[in-house]
Amino acid sequence: MSIVSTSSAADDQLRPPVPPGSVTLRINGQEHTLRLAPWTSLLDALREYVGLTGTKKGCDHGQCGACTVLVDGKRINSCLTLAVLQEGADITTIEGLGTPEHLHPLQQAFIDHDAFQCGYCTPGQICSAQGLINEGKAHTEDEIRELMSGNICRCGAYVGILNAVKEVAEKELKMASCTCYGSHGHSSNS
Amino acid sequence: MNPFTLTRAASAEAAVRDFSSHDSPAYIGGGTNILDLMKENVAHPTHLIGLNKLPLNAIETTADGGLRLGATATNADTAWHPEVKQRYPLLNQAILAGASPQLRNMATNAGNLMQRTRCYYFYDTATPCNKREPGSGCAAIGGYNRIHAILGASEHCIATHPSDMCVALAALEAVVHVQGKDGARQIKFEDFHRLPDDQPERDNTLQPGELIVALELPKQGFAKHFSYLKLRDRQSYAFALVSVAVGLELEGATIKDARLALGGVAHKPWRDKKAEQLLIGQPATEATFKQVAEAVLKDAKGQGTNDFKIELARRAIVRALKQAAAGEQQASDVFTNSNP
Amino acid sequence: MSTDSNTKYVGKAPNRVDGPLKVTGTAKYAAEFDVPDLAYGYVVSSPVAKGRIRKIHADKVLGLPGVLHVFSHENVPGLAWFDRSYKDDVAPGGSPFRPLHDDEIKFNMQPVALVVADTFELARYAASILEVEYEVEKHETDIESKRDEGYEPGRGKTGYMPPQRREDADKGLEQSAHRIRHEYIHGAQHHNPMEMFGATVHYHPDGKLTIYDKTQGVYNCQQYITKIFGLSKDEARVVNLFMGGGFGSGLRPQYELFLSVLAALELKRSVRVTLTRQQMFSFGHRPHTLQTLELGTGPDGALLGLKHYALHETSRFEDYTENVVNWSGMLYKCPNVRLSYGISPLDVYTPLDMRAPGAATGSFALEVAMDEMAYEAGLDPLEFRRRNYAEEDQNKKAPFSSKKLREAYDEGARRFGWDKRPMAPRATREGNLLVGWGVAGGVWDASMQKAAAKATITADGRLTVASAAGENGTGTYTIMAQIAAETLGLPLEAVTVRLGDTTLPEAPLQGGSWTAASVGTAVKNTCEALGEKLLKLAQKMDDSPLKDAKPEDVEFVNGLIRLRKEPQQSVVLRDVLQVSGEREIEVDSSAMPNPVNMQKYSMHSHNVVFAEVKVDEELGTVHVTRVVNVVAAGRILNQKTARSQVLGSVVWGISMALMEETVMDHRYGRYMNHNYAEYHVPTNADVRGIEVYFVEEEDPHVNPLGVKGIGEVGLLGVAAAITNAVYHATGKRVRSLPIYLDKLL
Ligand SMILES: Cc1cc2nc3c(=O)[nH]c(=O)nc-3n(C[C@H](O)[C@H](O)[C@H](O)COP(=O)(O)OP(=O)(O)OC[C@H]3O[C@@H](n4cnc5c(N)ncnc54)[C@H](O)[C@@H]3O)c2cc1C
Ligand code: SF4
Ligand code: FES
Ligand code: FES
């Protein structure tokens, strides 16, 4: 028998909380001025302080993609950035893409292709798909699969997700006059 | 995660100054590693210095034909930069083999070099770890060490450096530009990361407060014959068990110049210069490659659960060299493992 | 004699009715309800596997402004005393774990304290610096060291069937011309639904609670909470409108529920507690299982003897049981069978049903063994299965209520092109890749539970149906809407479905693939009862053409009530409501399984899976390039959602075959890959080429809807088919999952 005395902090010196300050975030085109301490992640700011719970927390460690939002049009994991670091940026969440009454094409495509089951990864998948389309790098099915791989779906709705993203991306690309989706991707490695 | 204050630095000098005026400070780039570690109570800075406003995100050609990658440029912007794609496709592929699109949009080049090991025990404060808590012991030795080192480990630590990007940077002989209190200096990539020896808490040779400002790639990019081969437990969004970066210059079937570095096998990106010498002047054949692979792994040592990595690395080296010699890879917008 | 009708929804493929909420982030999960003056709880977990808590040094933490309380066994108020108060509906035999009950540490990552603070960040910080002193005792966590100590559980949980034997398995094996005997292993797996467990407890001014909890059974949770805390049902309403995946993890109340209710009651304040991803590894899991299978056949390939033994861990405090071996006495015809089963207690948390519990495990071993046996007997693996087709359930000695597995074999083989498969392993190569094909399948219970529902129609013709069933991705909202709309001939848009609330009629736990059958039947019965009421009202109308009609003479179609025989004789449903002057009409009803049919028939769903893999021989990497999964599961209510469930099952099977395993370091008795980065489940890049088919299977006996449930059967055989395909590709037989690349080097 041995005795251990632990706390999980590597440094267990008591430190007083840093008082919150005023932070202004531009979310879905609207400014929100919040009282936040530096330790609030963008994800927690959205969910717990602004009340935008569409952005999901699946791990809080950058390992699942459920928290994906767009910052200045680029997809990121909102759990691994601090809200204060996003002052001045344009943040788009799932709520900013569409509403039940006015669905975004990706949202409609996700419904049509049944690209979800429980729906918990879905807002992140859709924001990620919008990011993928903005990037314009995915030209084959394999490339969509790879570039959607930062979003885990435990329900395993990947077939639907691929088809939904493909449908919308194809349309967008057509507008940019380029269609190159084939059912087989190039292979670059093993 | 403990409380901390935060400032956002406007210049490199200001960042370095801010660092030296705080007790337990840390820089934060994309935040994808440091915030993760802070939430796990592994890192505990009380002051963060935000770098994402620094004017250090440019990617530009240097006077002698190389390429300078800003420290705060994101991994994604770096991978997809036209100069990188065209001239350093090995780097393009290595970056795209790592993490996920979202993480690459956040992760900075400097942060990628500085990211810490993914050793399970390092991450779990319920277990001993010399890297996290010097002197507490290494739980990975004799434990579950599937992702641990087979080369250059010590009795104090058998962790690996998890980066993909750095394996390519090692092969490409990048130079790290840093700025400290007392001015700027340059560190050769091979001298940047270190082996654990009896100080596993030190991942690299950066001095406290030194700020990485840029990475410089020399002119030679191995754009025709290269390969980045990454083996992992799933097709994407997973760290390497073993990865191999290869750059070759061929004259006919003869190897004129060669670079070879491994990821996932050691405390640092494992470039093997002796192996490169063994390649130079030789025919680009499987026989040569096998010999070289033997040489690289001559001193390899398994730790139990990771014993397989020795054989895996041997085969991966041969495959990557073959791919590079055949010129099979192309720089692309996507790295896919999907062979079939 | 219904003709043209666009209110026939059952069996079609309408989009999910809750789709718009889910894709816009509007659907609310447990930790997302906005309640005023919320405090946040953060759980402190034990770093040791066994021992005692000596002291919890809470003072330091309580000194932080904003920290409200540190709950632990040192200060938990007097609660229910007896074990049975902590027993939930699906608790196995034994004595359930009671959070913060005493100083004893029973398993690693056990919750030892809850720190509550004004903000999430502060609670998290305070939890991290809370100092706890433990006396550490020696633990045992390795089932491999217990090989000879398994015992057959006595006190089973509901649904557990003791393993069977028939005739003489040893003799059958002795008489066999071909025999095999092997051990099959898989490690522990954790459900890991995307949504982490969490609860928001709304403390109302009158002291009543509304508890938004992540659960697969709101009634189960209500019962648990009211018994423990001595509350009346009216004081503890439990709600779960959407669940971000369950897979079994929410069958039993998890400790976030207990802790958040405790904190809310003590602090008289609303509280939210969410677990971390790491803490998602601190409760139930699919147990690490060791199985031995012995098979023997005659010269013609007919099975003569079969022995199947399984051993897995349970906790020290409960006897967790699953039906691992029983399937082996049922899937194929065999005269001599011995099935046996052992469990062994270790210092871990009690395992917990995880998608197709027992069957996913058992069918993996059985179906790989069947492949090995086929090769031993020199038969094509599918042909071997056909030769041993079970026409009846030999375990129960009863006919199947329906079984279209043979049709599934035909369909699958045709779709997959099985007839082009060379028998010999290593026969097909593409560059560096070896190509292999494998087949396997499984059988799963088609069960039904008691369920109740309520239906309300309002004057504007809108119908609301309600039942406390859950929606965790299976499509419950949608299929209930389909059934209700079709039964009353209303457009789908006119139907609102309400679920997951203890103020609604009781429904069984969302598990075992029985929701469609149970709640679906209840909804149907309820809507039919409402239909009768509506008919009566219609008959009161002036000149009603339905005056003399009996309920069975009419049908509800396209917003009309009309005579079946003379469809032109109809009344408009909405007119009936208007004329009647009633503002709303409400009906309650329920559904029960039919005990006679249950006695008489064996009710099961079946499937068969064909898989193609490409294996890089040098590097050991396996790509699953094609999967055809054919399911015989009675009537399919919604082609779209049912297909999605089977697609998801295939992804689970790929996961189980190739990557999923929770690894324990037995020196610490602690799972080490307790996060989503190192506990691997497939990404989009791991999945390609999945085809799903349903064979038509009419079943008049199973339940009035003829459905068998689809959530679990699709997983069966997937891991085995992949394992068999790997053998076919490489000639290497892997008998332990997952097939990491190093197993093929
Ligand atoms: C789930 C997951 C999967 C991943 N998979 C992979 C993978 O497969 N391959 C791979 O290569 N990587 C992977 N990564 C790691 C990722 O690439 C790194 O986290 C990232 O590169 C770190 O960059 P950052 O800018 O976010 O660093 P930060 O987290 O901001 O900083 C990391 C460290 O660098 C220091 N630092 C930052 N900038 C500077 C500077 N300019 N000068 C000095 N010090 C500095 C910080 O103080 C900190 O200590 C993964 C990460 C996650 C979370
Ligand atoms: S390998 Fe290194 S990082 Fe891992 S436990 Fe040992 S000392 Fe710590
Ligand atoms: S919650 Fe951010 S990646 Fe999982
Ligand atoms: S839909 Fe449930 S996790 Fe993706």
From TrEMBL, chain A:
<dbReference type="Pfam" id="PF01799">
    <property type="entry name" value="Fer2_2"/>
</dbReference>
<keyword id="KW-0408">Iron</keyword>
<dbReference type="InterPro" id="IPR006058">
    <property type="entry name" value="2Fe2S_fd_BS"/>
</dbReference>
<keyword id="KW-0411">Iron-sulfur</keyword>
<dbReference type="GO" id="GO:0051537">
    <property type="term" value="F:2 iron, 2 sulfur cluster binding"/>
</dbReference>
<dbReference type="InterPro" id="IPR002888">
    <property type="entry name" value="2Fe-2S-bd"/>
</dbReference>
<dbReference type="InterPro" id="IPR001041">
    <property type="entry name" value="2Fe-2S_ferredoxin-type"/>
</dbReference>
<dbReference type="InterPro" id="IPR036010">
    <property type="entry name" value="2Fe-2S_ferredoxin-like_sf"/>
</dbReference>
<dbReference type="InterPro" id="IPR012675">
    <property type="entry name" value="Beta-grasp_dom_sf"/>
</dbReference>
<keyword id="KW-0001">2Fe-2S</keyword>
<keyword id="KW-0479">Metal-binding</keyword>
<keyword id="KW-0560">Oxidoreductase</keyword>
<dbReference type="GO" id="GO:0016903">
    <property type="term" value="F:oxidoreductase activity, acting on the aldehyde or oxo group of donors"/>
</dbReference>
<dbReference type="InterPro" id="IPR036884">
    <property type="entry name" value="2Fe-2S-bd_dom_sf"/>
</dbReference>
<dbReference type="Pfam" id="PF00111">
    <property type="entry name" value="Fer2"/>
</dbReference>
Automatic annotation (TrEMBL), chain B:
<dbReference type="GO" id="GO:0071949">
    <property type="term" value="F:FAD binding"/>
</dbReference>
<dbReference type="Pfam" id="PF03450">
    <property type="entry name" value="CO_deh_flav_C"/>
</dbReference>
<keyword id="KW-0285">Flavoprotein</keyword>
<dbReference type="InterPro" id="IPR036683">
    <property type="entry name" value="CO_DH_flav_C_dom_sf"/>
</dbReference>
<dbReference type="GO" id="GO:0016491">
    <property type="term" value="F:oxidoreductase activity"/>
</dbReference>
<protein>
    <submittedName>
        <fullName>Xanthine dehydrogenase family protein subunit M</fullName>
    </submittedName>
</protein>
<dbReference type="InterPro" id="IPR002346">
    <property type="entry name" value="Mopterin_DH_FAD-bd"/>
</dbReference>
<dbReference type="InterPro" id="IPR016169">
    <property type="entry name" value="FAD-bd_PCMH_sub2"/>
</dbReference>
<dbReference type="InterPro" id="IPR036318">
    <property type="entry name" value="FAD-bd_PCMH-like_sf"/>
</dbReference>
<keyword id="KW-0274">FAD</keyword>
<dbReference type="InterPro" id="IPR005107">
    <property type="entry name" value="CO_DH_flav_C"/>
</dbReference>
<dbReference type="InterPro" id="IPR016166">
    <property type="entry name" value="FAD-bd_PCMH"/>
</dbReference>
<dbReference type="InterPro" id="IPR051312">
    <property type="entry name" value="Diverse_Substr_Oxidored"/>
</dbReference>
<feature type="domain" description="FAD-binding PCMH-type">
    <location>
        <begin position="1"/>
        <end position="222"/>
    </location>
</feature>
<dbReference type="InterPro" id="IPR016167">
    <property type="entry name" value="FAD-bd_PCMH_sub1"/>
</dbReference>
TrEMBL record, chain C:
<dbReference type="Pfam" id="PF02738">
    <property type="entry name" value="MoCoBD_1"/>
</dbReference>
<feature type="domain" description="Aldehyde oxidase/xanthine dehydrogenase a/b hammerhead">
    <location>
        <begin position="24"/>
        <end position="138"/>
    </location>
</feature>
<feature type="compositionally biased region" description="Basic and acidic residues">
    <location>
        <begin position="141"/>
        <end position="155"/>
    </location>
</feature>
<dbReference type="GO" id="GO:0005506">
    <property type="term" value="F:iron ion binding"/>
</dbReference>
<protein>
    <submittedName>
        <fullName>Xanthine dehydrogenase family protein molybdopterin-binding subunit</fullName>
    </submittedName>
</protein>
<dbReference type="InterPro" id="IPR016208">
    <property type="entry name" value="Ald_Oxase/xanthine_DH-like"/>
</dbReference>
<dbReference type="Pfam" id="PF20256">
    <property type="entry name" value="MoCoBD_2"/>
</dbReference>
<dbReference type="InterPro" id="IPR037165">
    <property type="entry name" value="AldOxase/xan_DH_Mopterin-bd_sf"/>
</dbReference>
<feature type="region of interest" description="Disordered">
    <location>
        <begin position="141"/>
        <end position="167"/>
    </location>
</feature>
<dbReference type="InterPro" id="IPR036856">
    <property type="entry name" value="Ald_Oxase/Xan_DH_a/b_sf"/>
</dbReference>
<dbReference type="InterPro" id="IPR008274">
    <property type="entry name" value="AldOxase/xan_DH_MoCoBD1"/>
</dbReference>
<dbReference type="InterPro" id="IPR046867">
    <property type="entry name" value="AldOxase/xan_DH_MoCoBD2"/>
</dbReference>
<dbReference type="GO" id="GO:0016491">
    <property type="term" value="F:oxidoreductase activity"/>
</dbReference>
<dbReference type="InterPro" id="IPR000674">
    <property type="entry name" value="Ald_Oxase/Xan_DH_a/b"/>
</dbReference>
<dbReference type="Pfam" id="PF01315">
    <property type="entry name" value="Ald_Xan_dh_C"/>
</dbReference>
